[in-house]
Amino acid sequence: MEKLIITAAICGAEVTKEHNPNVPYTVDEIAKEAEACYKAGASIIHLHVREDDGTPTQSKERFKECIDAIKERCADVIIQPSTGGAVGMSDEERLQPIYLNPEMATLDCGTCNFGGDDIFVNTENTIKYFGEKMIELNIKPEVEVFDKGMIDSAIRLNKKGYIKSPMHFNFVMGVNGGISATPFDLTFMAHSIPCDSTFTVSGIGRAEFPMAAVSIVLGGHVRVGFEDNVYTSKGKLASSNSELVEKVVRISKELGREIASPKEAREILGLKGV
Fold first, then answer.
1. How many degrees, rounded to 5, is the angle at CA 198 between CA 107 and CA 258?
2. 57 has a pLDDT exceeding 60
3. CATH number of 6-269: 3.100.10.10, 3.30.70.100, 3.90.1150.10, 3.20.20.70?
């Protein structure tokens, strides 16, 4: 079984310091969290950025500040900007960070109800447009899916040339409006992707570590971090993102699976490198 790629989603767009006072907002806070996760075993930093007051932004300039600060601390880590942004952002606003030419970026493959009146909108034309731009800029998409139908959409658009093979999926599980986070659901999703694909699992909230363990056993990869969950265990707030990474490293080693370095992660994912 290939080594485990750990992605750290360090701040997201929606979680705040009210949820956990250790959520990073500033450039310095984001860079420090990224470095700690890298040292703990994360090969990929999934990156949203914030203004200093915590307001989510897709500003190309803010992304550049954060990416430069992270690269100063850990030059070989893979930085994966989000093109999801925050609910209500326009397509062009969401796409800004790809013009910094990252190795990877997220590509959401469907619309999802996030609860209440919040709808995360990704029309087919949006997905095609984002896919074309990533091909044009030689950026590998992480195909983000919230249910089986989004996998089917990605496969169809792959066949039409909007997403290149081999695809790398991120199964987001346990979010409102998406697939539940159970071992059955994860196994179902893992067996629904093309045989040359790879996958990462993002379990939301209390599902983070159970889904991580199942993914490790299935040969998949794992995402953890404050974007998805702010606790290390029931009722215990995490002191940092790196504490969540460290827990995954312990689980993986107990299960007999070694952790991939950024170099090894690039080989597994077929990235263009730094």
1. 125
2. yes
3. 3.20.20.70
